């Protein structure tokens, strides 16, 4: 899972704890970890869901101003039949 540097910094700072992804097949699993440029991330939970079910609070937890901004971002993402809500946390230096 590729994450932009700005998003990684927000996760590290504790400002973001959700990530949304649309893909053909998941590349992470719940209970696993992900080594990134800022350190190790915990993959706490992964839930299948529909993009239209994203709430205002979830959009904000993912670093978006609101659901409208989330939907604008989603429109730029590559197509995929699987949409997932991923809870993450920063574990520290890798």
């Amino acid at each position: 899972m590729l994450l932009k540097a700005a998003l990684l910094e927000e996760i590290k700072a504790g400002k973001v704890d959700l990530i949304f992804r649309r893909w053909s097949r998941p590349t992470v699993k719940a209970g696993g970890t992900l080594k990134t440029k800022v350190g190790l991330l915990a993959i706490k939970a992964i839930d299948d869901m529909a993009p239209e079910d994203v709430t205002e609070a979830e959009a904000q937890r993912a670093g978006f101003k609101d659901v409208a901004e989330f939907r604008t971002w989603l429109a730029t993402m590559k197509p995929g039949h699987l949409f997932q809500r991923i809870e993450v946390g920063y574990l520290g230096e890798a």
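The radius of gyration is 13 Å. The mean pLDDT is 94.
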